[in-house]
Amino acid sequence: MIDQVRDIVKNRLGEGRVEGVIGLKLEHGQAAPCLFTKVDEVDSLVLSPKYPLSTLCRLIISKRPEARLGIVAFGCDERALVELAKANQVDLNRIEILGVACTEEQARECRCERPYPSQRLVGEKVEGAPDERGDELLGKSLENRYEFWTRQFNKCIKCYGCRNVCPMCFCKDCALEQAINVRRGELPPDFPIYHFIRAYDTIGRCIGCGECERACPMDIPLTTLYRLLRKDVKELFGYEAGLDVEKPIPLATILEYLKEGGSKE
Amino acid sequence: MKKAEESRGAGERGGEGFEPRIVGFLCRWCAYAGADLAGTSRIKYPPNVMPIRVMCSGRVDPVFVIKALMEGADGVLIAGCHPGDCHYRGGNYIARKRFLAMQRLLDYLGIDPKRVRLEWISASEGTRYAETVADFTSQIRKLGPISLKVVG
């Protein structure tokens, strides 16, 4: 699989269709994000561990909007790019997505619902993995849920890792850094505002990459919450993040109502 | 005066004499005027809602709601114009979408979503405002005081 990916990347670079390809580079036994610009570098391209490469793409484009980039993208990376395009952070016309499907093992590890990109060049599509933790939570009473999350959120050391790693978090002024919301110098953050803001802000934007939970040094099961909310967004607004670039973000638009001439419900 | 201060301490507010504290975010064009009308029409309703005037129900960030609950409000009422009547064309639709999503989130976190309510109240509906407040207050009375500050 990796050879196939390397060949495609070499091909794109050789043809000059892109100026560089974003991927992971293995160097001194460590993988790090890299912008490949030369064909002979590509032999050090690797596919693991998981890394939110879409963020790299957004950062490069913010400095150099005219760049023509390729990106080695798993399902979640592609969805992130679609959502970023809706938020005017990247221009999909200038990005070539080199889609790679995840293996079953990777999908299980991420508890991923959709471990494949829509445009797939390499790999076989495998089915999404389940996450029982959501049902487990819903099986609890309100008091027990409250107790569960206080215990979980009290572990928080406010490292901001979940926010920093999130491909969808790009605001310059973050609500989590405003003292009126989250008191400075206090640990753990007051229940539940820090995680309430995080969770609320994922609504309609979370693409389910699971980076937040992987980044969390205290093992707070964040994706349990976010996955439930993704299900709700689908149920309430018929929206799934990252699938259709034409579909507007649900919480930012009311066009559907205005077109109807205003429903009375 | 002393009594009022005592009632402010969380955890001691349960039992017989529990008076719910409700924060009401009222839209400047409809619900706030509706509340005004309820007053000028001398309609009697419970004094438990502390109104905060906002320019639009769409201005109400869910962070305001959680903040209110954390600071000791037992319930939060958001009231705006009827669908189709928004002064800014669609702020109330935004409010509704946010509200639906926020309710689910509160539910998952173990905070009773019945503690928050969204209502459409026009400037001419003083009675409706009074009824809403009465109904919501009795609902919160049943749920009892909130204890978000108490960490288990």
String of helices and strands of chain B: HEHEHEHEH
Strand order, largest beta sheet of chain B: 2-1-3-4
Poorly predicted regions of chain A:
none
* Count of distinct strands of chain A: 5
Alpha carbon gyration radius of chain B: 15 Å
Secondary structure: helix percent of chain A: 25-40%
- The overall average pLDDT of chain B, rounded, is 88
Give the mean pLDDT of chain A.
91
- Secondary-structure-based class of chain A equals alpha/beta
What does this protein structure show overall?
The complex is a heterodimer of chains A (265) and B (152). Chain A has 265 residues and is an alpha/beta fold. Chain A folds into 2 domains: 2-110, no CATH class; 133-252, no CATH class. Chain A contains 11 helices and 5 strands. Chain A has helices at 2-15, 53-63, 75-86, 104-110, 133-138, 142-153, 161-165, 193-202, 211-215, 222-237, 255-260, and strands at 20-27, 30-36, 45-46, 69-73, 95-99. In chain A, strands 1, 2, 3, 4 and 5 form a 5-stranded mixed sheet that branches. In chain A, strand 4, helix 3 and strand 5 form a beta-alpha-beta unit. The relative contact order of chain A is 0.12. The model of chain A has no long low-confidence stretch (mean pLDDT 91). A 4-stranded parallel sheet of chain B has the order 2-1-3-4, with helices on both faces. The longest helix of chain B has 19 residues, at 91-109. Helix content of chain B is 40%, strand content 15%. Chain B has helices spanning 2-6, 31-40, 62-70, 91-109, 126-143, and strands at 22-27, 49-54, 75-80, 116-120. In chain B, strand 1, helix 2 (31-40) and strand 2 (49-54) form a beta-alpha-beta unit. Chain B is α/β, with parallel strands linked by helices and 152 residues long. The radius of gyration of chain B is 15 Å and the shape is globular. Chain B has a domain at 40-54 and 61-141.
Keywords:
heterodimer, A: alpha/beta, 5-stranded mixed sheet, 11 helices, 5 strands, globular, B: 152 residues, alpha/beta, disordered N terminus
